[in-house]
Specification:
- By secondary structure, the protein is an alpha+beta fold.
- The chain folds into 2 domains: 218 residues, Brix domain (Rossmann fold); 112 residues.
- Helix content is 40%, strand content 20%.
- Helix 11 packs parallel to helix 12.
- The two termini are 89 Å apart.
- This is Brix domain-containing protein.
Length: 418
């Protein structure tokens, strides 16, 4: 027989043929979903945030109401998931919870205001949204997170660890096509979340030369000669090229046209959305449950903290005790199950032995009856002097046979009369 060929699905799925890359395994992955009261805006905001977290997130994650956090934690290790982003909606407002798997901490933010990605893009005069930008993780830019309090450092490290780290010596600048900007406002204690697409354009070129460099077809209807088109005065297309702070000297040659190594280029940002204004409310030590390390509005005294700690320890001990009792009951049930199984096997064995014994007894009784019949036939020959009939000494089931001497006497009397 010939070798069986692989199907189309196996050929398309490269992960079946080739193992996962190390950089893909080490990159932080995330789950993004929503909980609480239903609403169109929270669903759209969840989808927009998944778009921000691409490509290392579950873009088509299906959530059911019966799913719990334990369900996500149980599959997180297999899928290399390190963070969970939960959007919740209550009667008081909307919140965002960032959880580090598997044991925390958990950061809770209140969403003061937000704008969906479709609304942000619709108000822009120039839009730049393309799928190629979402094939690589975004660059994280933090501002004003060096204030007082360990909570700001924790927020900064949490957002940084949600995305892959960048090696400055080996990074390919052509893969950096998006960025996330987080700005902390010290007066209002809020965080401005923004999401941009990055575009690098060469500087110092006229509009006509730039079109030729970027392989665009120029409009020569108003020019007498191509030289007139090329010798037009330099005119910038945006304020980004006029602003010298946006000019950079490229250390590498980018994939976009006109951006060569050691040449000057300008950086443009096109907002992709969503816009979110966050405020840190609470920091918990565990995964959605644990010691509260920071709270913006509730402040506890040392006595209250000690009482809460004692209550948490008592709850933990009670949980461990219930777990031990449950394990002990489970062990007892396993022992009872094993004993019942052994008894069942013993009963089956005894039944087999009894059946064998009954068969043996029946066989012996059959042999005994056969011997008795042979003795009766011999006795008949000696007394009567002729061969007995075949059916004379065969026993019938359910009928009681008279004693052999009575049978012989009655038979002899009949023969004498005849």
């Amino acid at each position: 027989m010939g070798r069986k060929q692989k199907g189309r699905c196996v050929k398309r799925n490269k992960q079946i043929n080739v193992g996962e890359k190390e950089e893909l395994v080490q990159a932080p992955h995330s789950f993004v979903f929503h909980r609480g009261l239903p609403g169109e805006h929270i669903v759209e905001l969840t989808k927009d945030f998944r778009r921000v977290m691409e490509p290392f997130t579950a873009s088509a994650l299906k959530i059911r109401k019966k799913n719990t956090i334990k369900d996500f934690v149980s599959v997180a290790g297999v899928l290399h998931v390190s963070h969970i982003c939960i959007f919740t909606k209550t009667e008081l407002g909307m919140y965002l919870k960032l959880c580090r798997l598997p044991r925390g901490p958990t950061l809770t933010f209140k969403i003061h205001s937000f704008s969906l990605a479709r609304d942000v893009i619709s108000i822009l005069k120039k839009q730049m949204v393309y799928e190629e930008a979402f094939k690589n993780a975004p660059l994280v830019i933090l501002n004003n997170f060096s204030g007082k309090g360990m909570q700001l450092k924790l927020v900064a490290s949490t957002f940084q660890n949600m995305f892959p780290t960048i090696n400055l010596t080996t990074i390919n600048l052509s893969t950096i096509r998006r960025c996330i900007c987080l700005n902390y406002n010290m007066t209002s204690k809020t965080i401005d979340f923004r999401h941009y697409a990055i575009k690098v354009v060469p500087t110092g070129l006229s509009r006509g030369v730039k079109k030729l460099v970027q392989a665009k077809i120029p409009n020569l209807s108003k020019c007498q000669d191509i030289s007139e088109f090329l010798t037009k005065p330099i005119a910038s297309e945006s304020e980004a090229e006029d602003d010298e702070t946006s000019h950079v000297t490229l250390p590498q040659t980018l994939s976009s046209r006109g951006n060569h190594a050691n040449s000057k280029s300008a950086i443009r940002l096109y907002e992709l959305g969503p816009r979110i204004t966050l405020q840190l409310i609470k920091v918990e030590n565990g995964l959605l449950d644990g010691e509260i390390l920071f709270h913006e509005f509730v402040h506890k005294t040392e006595e209250e903290k000690l009482a809460i700690e004692k209550k948490r320890e008592a709850k933990k001990k009670l949980k461990e005790k219930r777990k031990r009792i449950q394990e002990e009951n489970k062990r007892k049930k396993e022992i009872q199950k094993q004993d019942h199984k052994e008894k069942s096997l013993k009963g089956i064995q005894k039944k087999k032995e009894s059946d064998i014994l009954l068969q043996k007894i029946a066989k012996e009784s059959a042999e005994k009856s056969k011997l008795e019949e042979d003795d009766d036939a011999q006795y008949y020959r000696e007394e009567v002097g002729e061969e007995p009939d075949k059916d004379l000494f065969q026993t019938k089931i359910g009928t009681k046979r008279p004693h052999k001497h009575m049978r012989y006497k009655s038979k002899k009397a009949k023969l004498d009369k005849s």
